Amino acid sequence: MVSAKRRLRAVLGGQLGESQLPSRDAARAACVSTQWRDLILHDEHLWKRFVADDLGLSEKRGADGTNKLTYRHAYASWRLSYGAEYWPYLPRAIRAWERIKGWLAANYPAVHATIQGGASEADLAEAEAALGFRLPPAVKVLYRLHNGQALALDTALDRHEAARAAAKARFDAAKAQVDELLARQQQQAKAGGADADAAAAAATAVAAATAELAAAQQAQQAVAGPTGPETEAELGSIFHGLFGGYSVYDHMVCTRMMPLQRAVQWTRAMELHRIRPRINPAGGMFFQPNLLAVACSFRVYDKLFVADVSTGGMWVVRRGMRGTMLEPASPGETSAGRRDGLLDWFEEYANRLVSGNYQVAPLDDELAEGSRAISLFPLRPPGMAEAVTRGVRVRASVAYVPEQLPGNKHVFAYSIRMALLEPAQLGAGLGGGPPLLRCQLLSRHWVIRDENGQVVDQVRGDGVIGMYPILEPGRDEFVYCSCTHQVATRGSMEGEFRFVEGTSDRPTGPVFDVVCPPFQLDVPSYVY
């Protein structure tokens, strides 16, 4: 006789073994009979597929980060820890975090070490109470999994804030003491005055309190300005931003994900609620956005990303002549029902990391290896263009710089990488001539075009940023960064670099032009 369980497997066909039965249907099937329930509860192949499909996980890891005895126990752990409101977004958030952490573990362990454990429901409730508005599940789920980053720089910020608070408390106490003594003197004067000894004592007390007030005011002024890192660990941590950065001339940013507590702190400190109402694209009505600061550079005001929890939009803050402005950091605001713009933005960043679009590289020439960070200059098209002329390879990458707003123009930083390739690397890029052993840059020529392809400007000059690099096979790429700006949201640049064989002091051949291929200056759909 065929057993009941065998009959059930026959009825279900390959659904259990071949992982075709959805978890929701499995739960319904388990309610039909105890035999169906037992079959479903103990089928590890089925639960392994549920963990993979519903959570994006390949191991038996539970919501607390520990490995469970079975896949069913792991799945149950997530179900018990995350309510129904999270499940439309939980698999996406887990996958994005796992991809980011995997990339960091392989490419930048120092940043991987800054990622914190998840925030609790109590933490989220406290944040919502402080903010005065509710956070959508698509936002909360990211913090539930990992509560942003903990940087050594935070120690300096906390120390500075503590010093400011102490200085303010001292000033307030000294002022209150002076006010009280002066009020007492006035009362005594109205009452007919005091004897000479009492008057002298009162005057002495007022003088001492006034001196303390002046000292307290000086102490408060001493800590009023911005703070900076004081130790090597604090200095190094400014480059540990999860969302990367760039450096061009004297402007350098590296964006970190703020822990929930700091996100609330900066949301309130920067009075984001005062940003003027905007037009709701869906309804055409004015509304006041509920903004949450989620990511910022090591100097918060240099670059700040905010999530509009009312609509789900993701924005980057721009400051210009017209005051604070918001520019979209993701393709568009999601429907009011989902409000998952932050999650969508986060997923796209994970995609860019794992696809090899970004690398870890120094941001500051003077600090060199001490400034290693995730560089936002792309390594893949369309953000990068590449050409080889006579063995000289030029790679051009563009990063949009939304936080800079000169005359309401769009600013783009571009990174140019030059290298003289080894003979084995040349391929078709040699151009038929003998391989070069050395060459030196002499000058540059840029052609800048508008969105219609029309030339709007040309720039010629010696060297690049005052440098005349010498290229040799096998040496590291020469890298330099500069910037340009335009009113339109689209444009392009291209040009040539003039080199001489050998060096300018000892030429071994004629000058020749190396092509820099066209690269786009387009405001991107996703801004980081």
TrEMBL record:
<feature type="coiled-coil region">
    <location>
        <begin position="157"/>
        <end position="184"/>
    </location>
</feature>
<protein>
    <recommendedName>
        <fullName>ApaG domain-containing protein</fullName>
    </recommendedName>
</protein>
<dbReference type="InterPro" id="IPR007474">
    <property type="entry name" value="ApaG_domain"/>
</dbReference>
<dbReference type="Pfam" id="PF04379">
    <property type="entry name" value="DUF525"/>
</dbReference>
<dbReference type="Pfam" id="PF09346">
    <property type="entry name" value="SMI1_KNR4"/>
</dbReference>
<dbReference type="InterPro" id="IPR036047">
    <property type="entry name" value="F-box-like_dom_sf"/>
</dbReference>
<dbReference type="InterPro" id="IPR001810">
    <property type="entry name" value="F-box_dom"/>
</dbReference>
<dbReference type="InterPro" id="IPR018958">
    <property type="entry name" value="Knr4/Smi1-like_dom"/>
</dbReference>
<comment type="pathway">
    <text>Protein modification; protein ubiquitination.</text>
</comment>
<keyword id="KW-0833">Ubl conjugation pathway</keyword>
<feature type="domain" description="ApaG">
    <location>
        <begin position="386"/>
        <end position="528"/>
    </location>
</feature>
<dbReference type="InterPro" id="IPR036767">
    <property type="entry name" value="ApaG_sf"/>
</dbReference>
<dbReference type="InterPro" id="IPR037883">
    <property type="entry name" value="Knr4/Smi1-like_sf"/>
</dbReference>
<keyword id="KW-0175">Coiled coil</keyword>
<dbReference type="Pfam" id="PF12937">
    <property type="entry name" value="F-box-like"/>
</dbReference>
